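Figure 6 in text form: structure in, sequence out.
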């Protein structure tokens, strides 16, 4: 049982994933990218030639992913595409999809496995729904333009032919859907510390987060 839980939420391309990964490595904590779970569901539907906006299909595939879950599936590079991200955001509005993925996330938070000294989870509803008692809750955000520029650079570095304008449009659409849904919408928990990463380097973000963590956890 791990009480050392760090919840990191925030919108797309806010820098939360990079931060969570670096913190986990440096603290010896286990890390779960919960967005990858929703991406796995969305991607699997696209692979089957289905429609991520079809509620019944989304539930069926989410339950399938839960029943046959293997952490290695989250390493699939295809999950990182914008198509998988949009599909993830569509399946994520369905309450039964979220329910299917709930235990996986909570079990990881309680027992991140191996010699992990704690757990870091990043997503949209970690501080509000998945781990409401987490002693550390961070909400990482950044200006839209900055986030779009970062995501464009990342996609282009992987050889994808995208423009910043199209990335910005997709990102805004996804953020609006994630924030407006009825179940577990993206928002900072009341007791979350909000960090705007727009004008911070990854190293500055890391230092700031670590300072907060050290005040709350004995790490
Ligand atoms: O963090 P990400 O961009 O990989 O997430 C992809 C989508 O998954 C996101 O647009 C909404 C959904 N998601 C969610 O609803 N709840 C989470 N805890 C994580 C992701």
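Output sequence:
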């Amino acid at each position: 049982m791990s009480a050392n839980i760090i919840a990191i939420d925030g919108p797309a391309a806010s820098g939360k994933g990079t931060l969570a990964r670096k913190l986990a490595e440096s603290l010896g904590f286990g890390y779960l990218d919960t967005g990858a779970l929703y991406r796995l569901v969305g991607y699997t539907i696209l692979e089957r030639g289905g429609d991520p906006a079809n509620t019944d299909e989304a539930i069926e595939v989410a339950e399938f992913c839960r029943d046959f879950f293997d952490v290695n599936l989250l390493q699939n590079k295809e999950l990182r595409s914008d198509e998988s991200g949009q599909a993830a955001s569509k399946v994520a509005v369905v309450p039964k999809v979220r329910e299917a993925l709930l235990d996986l996330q909570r079990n990881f938070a309680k027992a991140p496995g191996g010699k992990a000294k704690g757990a870091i989870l990043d997503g949209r509803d970690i501080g509000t729904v998945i781990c409401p008692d987490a002693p550390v809750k961070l909400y990482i955000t950044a200006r839209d333009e900055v986030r779009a520029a970062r995501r464009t650079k990342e996609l282009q570095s992987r050889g994808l032919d995208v423009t910043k304008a199209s990335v910005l449009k997709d990102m805004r659409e996804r953020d609006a859907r994630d924030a407006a849904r009825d179940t577990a919408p993206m928002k900072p928990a009341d007791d979350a510390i909000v960090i705007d990463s727009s004008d911070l380097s990854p190293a500055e973000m890391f230092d700031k987060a670590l300072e907060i963590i050290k005040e709350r956890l004995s790490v």
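Caption detail: The pocket of 2'-deoxycytidine-5'-monophosphate is lined by residues 12, 34-35, 38-39, 85, 88-89, 92, 123-125, 174, 178 (CB under 6 Å).
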